[in-house]
Amino acid sequence: MAVAIVLLGPLQDLGRDVPGQVAAPLDWDGLLAAVGPAIAELLRDDRVNIACAGRVLADKTALDARDGDEVALLPPVSGG
Amino acid sequence: MAVAIVLLGPLQDLGRDVPGQVAAPLDWDGLLAAVGPAIAELLRDDRVNIACAGRVLADKTALDARDGDEVALLPPVSGG
Amino acid sequence: MPDVRLLDGPFDPNTLIARFTASNPGLGGVCTFVGEVRSDGDVEALELSHYEPLTLPNMRELADRAMARFDLIDVLVVHRVGVMHPGEPIVCVSAAARHRRCAIDAVDFCMDHLKSAAWFWKREQRAHQWRWIEPRDEDYADLARWSE
Amino acid sequence: MPDVRLLDGPFDPNTLIARFTASNPGLGGVCTFVGEVRSDGDVEALELSHYEPLTLPNMRELADRAMARFDLIDVLVVHRVGVMHPGEPIVCVSAAARHRRCAIDAVDFCMDHLKSAAWFWKREQRAHQWRWIEPRDEDYADLARWSE
Predict the structure, then answer these.
(1) DSSP H helical segments within chain D, as ranges?
(2) Over the stretch B24-45, which tens digit does the pLDDT of each residue have?
(3) Residue C75 is part of which domain span?
(4) Closest CA to D90 of D124, D63, D57, D138
(5) What contacts C61, CB < 8 A, 6 or more positions away?
(6) How far is CA B18 from the centre of its chain?
(7) D38 → closest Cβ in C86, C98, C107
């Protein structure tokens, strides 16, 4: 049973080795372990958000992804 | 030899009896006399401007219209 | 080079805007405001009068000030005069700039000045009666925002 | 009823604006901002990526907030994603309101949010190399103006 991990924007380039799927359930520590130390460091930045199942987490350390959820790693936006 | 007097906006309706032309030269007192007491009273309002020969006067009491000049009486605008 | 026009007949803002935008490709951003005669209860018509020797020169000066103050690439200022009916465009201002804030502020600036510092006088027809419109205090307050 | 779209191909802002204006006749005023990919030196292309589950819902919420906050009659928010070239429109925001200040402020508000609080990531291609664009401090400052 799996959780999908999606990297957005510049994180795509930096996280080529991050697995697309990891075992469910997935919490904050599990995520940091799954993405490797470089991406983990970036995730700790306040400007980097995490969405789970289509919702941005107010407190990303409270991540609790279940089977079938998609976890998106959202770096600072640069739109328009 | 004449100075033309043009009334703009609401002054048009109020100044139907104002002559279209008066003798040159025309100064502030001459203008007040020419337009009659009702319009003269309105001209004293700070928000009413006077243009002479296509230029708005910074000090309308310094009016000095010569032969061939057009004097325009400009009430507060309400544009756009 | 500012494009400033005083028109005494109906105009189509979209045609003007399309041409303005096409003449400034790859420029960054274009902000536009179009004002129409409002369908306001029983208003049948609106008449804008102006004073020919002052109105257009004053609008040209406004466009030049906007160009300099907001670092514009180009500006379009078009104003209708004469008798108009609800739904017809009265005014169209378009500003092209490299940065959006400049384009938006320039349109805001031009509209505030056209509303209360340009040589236009407005009257409305309701129930076949014409009535002159007084300037609104709100318009003076809007204008005061730009004084240096 | 806000019209909010995320487009992955080229669009013509003038067609959208003409339709938007025509659907709101006699409304007062319409303010529009159109942003294009700038011809900026050697920029060959720009790519905007987004996150499907968040981006469109977030834009719809932005449009709803603008409707309520600025007392709008209607609002149009269109954003391009994918690879674009200099001169191509990226964004078009149009707001219709009875009062011009509301229409202008609503466009300003939506643009600031699309720039720095919407789920878009931008990269530029120069000399065949893609480079991610960092958010600008200026954009955060613009956004902060709207916090209550």
Answers:
(1) 13-22, 52-69, 100-116, 137-144
(2) 999 999 999 999 999 999 999 9
(3) 3-144
(4) D124
(5) none
(6) 10
(7) C98
What are the domain boundaries of chain A?
2-74
pLDDT digit of tens for each residue in chain A (80 aa)?
799 999 999 999 888 889 999 999 999 999 999 999 999 999 999 999 999 999 999 999 999 999 999 999 999 998 75
C148: pLDDT strictly greater than 70: no
Helix (H) or strand (E) holding B65: strand B64-65
The crossing angle, in degrees rounded to 10, of helices C100-116 and C52-69 is 160
Domain B2-74, what architecture? Roll (3.10)
Q: Are A80 and D37 in contact (CB under 8 A)?
A: no
What's the structural domain count of chain C?
Answer: 1
Between chains, do A76 and D119 touch, taking CB under 8 Å as contact? no
Residue C112 burial (CB count, 10 A): 22
Instruction: State mean pLDDT over B19-28.
Output: 95
Gap between the Cα atoms of C91 and B79, Å rounded = 10
Which residues of A are less than 8 Å from D36 in CB distance?
A: none
Q: Are A19 and A35 in contact (CB under 8 A)?
A: no
Strands C74-80 and C3-7: parallel
**How many C-beta atoms surround the C-beta of residue D138 within 10 A?**
12
Measured between beta carbons, which residues in chain A are less than 8 angstroms from residue D53? 51, 54, 70, 72
**Is the distance from CB of D106 to CB of D130 less than 8 angstroms?**
no
CB C120 within 8 A of CB C59: no
